[in-house]
């Protein structure tokens, strides 16, 4: 696994050991989870074997805008604030992430720099899935791999709809 | 396959028969194709067995905003204009699609109504992939299925980055 600044920050968080211990907890969140809503407990358990679970204290920066990043994060507990620099380089709060939701999918997939920063607003428990692990799942657990990819497509599609609608609202507003 | 208004319109287009005949042509477009850029000719050939190829005359509406839709389209030849109604219900041209590019992925995946209308600006040749066919590929051609899903995630991720950046530009502008 490539040693990036982001990896180094992740390594400083408290690792919570065997991730399969959290499978039931993650499964309990699926009502709130666009990513895992169609997953059963067995699938979550298999998937969790490929993840790492960490505790992040308040203020911990899990993802930094502009950094190279190769993992996505599923929030088990706590609250994450998403900031993006505006044109004056001031951080603008653009989203809040609640338990059950995930973030960081874009860079995990496309390898481009992180679009925004994700900071723990309080003590958080997170499960991390790296690009390498996703590739292994696709090879070793084909059906589960396809299911994760389907859900990722779904999530991104819904975010794209939402963002496109907002953009068109702004464009309409400018026209008036 | 569910008979939707969109399917009925598609059925009125001129079908060009055996889709594998177009595999080489599609493969020739991969330099321009975010979807197929990593596909070799054999993969395109297998994939094309699951597609239908049509000729659409100038003005043909391939996708209509608000309609139920369950397929995506790969443009082989011609030019497609993408329109979305603004708040005054006037069509606004929001994108142009060139050969090698694809459209309609969002509804194929998430089953939500079409976000915009896609109209042939000139005589077009299109290859159509339905949700059912994609599901069959995932089951019958697992590796190819995973590859398509990966590419879909990639495309959506890149579109989401672009759209989010534009949205933030507008939000910044409004702040000034």
Assign the CATH superfamily of chain A. Answer: Jelly Rolls
Query: How large is the share of residues in beta strands of chain A?
Result: 15-25%
CATH architecture of chain A: Sandwich
| Major sheet strand order of chain A | 1-2-9-4-7
Helical amount of chain A: 25-40%
What fold name goes in the CATH topology slot of chain A? Jelly Rolls
Q: What attributes characterize this protein structure?
A:
Jelly Rolls, alpha+beta, 24% strand, 176 residues, homodimer, 9 strands
Structure description:
2 copies of one chain form a homodimer. With 176 residues, the first copy, chain A, is α+β, with helices and mostly antiparallel strands. Chain A has one domain: Jelly Rolls, CATH 2.60.120. Chain A has 6 helices and 9 strands. Chain A has helices spanning 5-11, 23-27, 41-48, 105-110, 131-140, 142-175, and strands at residues 14-15, 52-56, 61-63, 71-77, 80-85, 91-97, 102-103, 117-120, 124-130. In chain A, a hairpin with a 5-residue loop joins strand 5 and strand 6 (91-97). In chain A, helix 5 crosses helix 6 (142-175). The first copy, chain A, is globular and about 55 Å long. The model of chain A has no long low-confidence stretch (mean pLDDT 92). At the A-B interface, helix 4 and helix 6 of A face helix 4 and helix 6 of B.
Blueprint of the fold:
Two copies of one chain form a homodimer.
Chain A: H1 5-11, E1 14-15, H2 23-27, H3 41-48, E2 52-56, E3 61-63, E4 71-77, E5 80-85, E6 91-97, E7 102-103, H4 105-110, E8 117-120, E9 124-130, H5 131-140, H6 142-175
Antiparallel strand pairs in A: 1-2, 2-9, 3-8, 4-7, 4-9, 5-6, 5-8
């Amino acid at each position: 696994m490539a040693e990036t600044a982001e990896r180094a920050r992740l390594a400083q968080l408290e690792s919570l050991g065997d991730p399969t211990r959290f499978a039931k907890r993650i499964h309990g969140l699926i009502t709130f989870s666009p990513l895992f809503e169609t997953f059963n407990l067995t699938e979550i358990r298999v998937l969790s074997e490929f993840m790492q679970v960490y505790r992040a204290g308040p203020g911990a920066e899990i993802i930094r805008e502009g950094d190279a990043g190769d993992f996505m994060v599923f929030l088990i507990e706590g609250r994450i604030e998403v900031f993006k620099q505006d044109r004056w380089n001031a951080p603008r709060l653009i989203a809040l992430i609640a338990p059950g939701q995930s973030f960081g999918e874009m860079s995990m997939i496309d390898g481009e720099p992180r679009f925004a920063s994700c900071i723990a607003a309080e003590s958080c428990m997170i499960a991390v899935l790296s690009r390498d692990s996703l590739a292994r799942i696709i090879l070793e657990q084909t059906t589960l791999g396809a299911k994760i990819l389907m859900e990722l497509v779904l999530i991104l599609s819904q975010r794209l709809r939402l963002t496109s609608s907002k953009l068109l609202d702004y464009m309409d507003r400018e026209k008036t």
